[in-house]
Design goal:
mainly alpha, 2 domains, two-stranded parallel sheet, two-stranded antiparallel ribbon, 4 strands
C-alpha cells in the first residue's frame, strides 16, 4: 500500500485503513487461493479480539464473506475456557465476551475451538452453543 501511494496509484487520495489496507489484505488472501489452486485457505488472525492491531485484519475477513459468498467462508474462533481449581468449574464468560466482541465487529463464528485444561462436558458445550449462537 505504501509503495502504491508513493507511486501515485491512489491519485492523491488519502490512504485509509478501509478500503486501502483491507483491500490489500483481501487481495493477498485471494491471490493465495488462485496461485496455489487451493480448495481451502486458512487465514489465522492471532492476538486478542478487540486489539487495535488486529482490527484491519478482522475487517478484511469480515468483508471476504460478502466478496466470495457466505457459503465459501467459515469463521472459527479459538478461545480459552479457564478451569478454576478452587471452584472446580469452567468459566464460559470469557468466551462469551470474546464472541460478543467479534459479533460487534460483524463476525459471527460458525465454530468455536475451545482450549481448556480439562475436557468440557456436554453441559458446557450446550451453554456455549446457546450464548454464542453456534451448534453444540
Amino acid at each position: 500500500v505504501l509503495r502504491k501511494e508513493r507511486k501515485g496509484e491512489y491519485l492523491g487520495a488519502t490512504v485509509q485503513v478501509i478500503p486501502h489496507i483491507t483491500d490489500a489484505l483481501k487481495e493477498k488472501i485471494k491471490r493465495a487461493a488462485t496461485t496455489t489452486d487451493s480448495d481451502v485457505i486458512i487465514t489465522e488472525v492471532g492476538g486478542t479480539v478487540g486489539d487495535i492491531e488486529s482490527l484491519p485484519f478482522l475487517e478484511a475477513l469480515r468483508q471476504m464473506k460478502a466478496d466470495v459468498g457466505a457459503e465459501n467462508v467459515m469463521y472459527i474462533h479459538t478461545t480459552l475456557l479457564p478451569y478454576l481449581k478452587a471452584a472446580g468449574e469452567m468459566k464460559t464468560k470469557p468466551t462469551q465476551h470474546s464472541v460478543k466482541e467479534l459479533r460487534g465487529l460483524g463476525i459471527q463464528p460458525n465454530m468455536l475451538v475451545i482450549r481448556t485444561e480439562k475436557p468440557a462436558g456436554q453441559n458446557i458445550k450446550n451453554k456455549l452453543a446457546q450464548f454464542c449462537d453456534v451448534a453444540p
